[in-house]
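Quick one: examine the sequence and fold tokens given here and explain what the tokens say about the fold. Here goes:
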Amino acid sequence: MEFFRKFVKVVYEFIEAFVISASVFVVVYLFLMQPHQVKGSSMFPTFKDQEYLLTDKITYKQRLPMFGDVIVFKAPVNENFDFIKRVIAIPGQTVMIKEGHVYVDGNMLDEFYLPAEYTTSPGQFLAEGEEFTVPDNTVMAFGDNRDHSSDSRDWGPVPNQNIVGRVFFRYWPTKVMGVVVNPIKK
């Protein structure tokens, strides 16, 4: 009988620890941060296919996305999928693609975080040489690998309500583990 009581106590403690752990995980996942896997090459060389990232869900409850932030958002064509892109322009700014370069508010972006040979082509939404003013509560988001990215050039601005959060940490593979910082932020 004593063995049975000890066994029941151990099982109870195990279940209690599991429920507490699961509850903490659910709260963190729903409200604080969420893991995401890079799928494809649209953010190369910044992120490579199959890397794992953590997305901060709190930052954009305190401030709006900023130029240079890497964000995760619900894909505009199918919201069951998440996209990872870089914020190129914020509300009120004008965006234009001209001769392979991105212009924001009439100034060519210095995209020093991209390889020099990368150029930016127009898309179905953002045509060559046409200025577009980013509406309120949206951002323009481009993949870093411009030739291999479906982004705001093709389907327009990303509504803020579709943004899951800001990428802040890469945790796999371990050789590139570390904090992801906005290269523009000083």
In short: The chain has a mean pLDDT of 89. The domain at 35-179 is CATH 2.10.109.10 (Umud Fragment, subunit A).
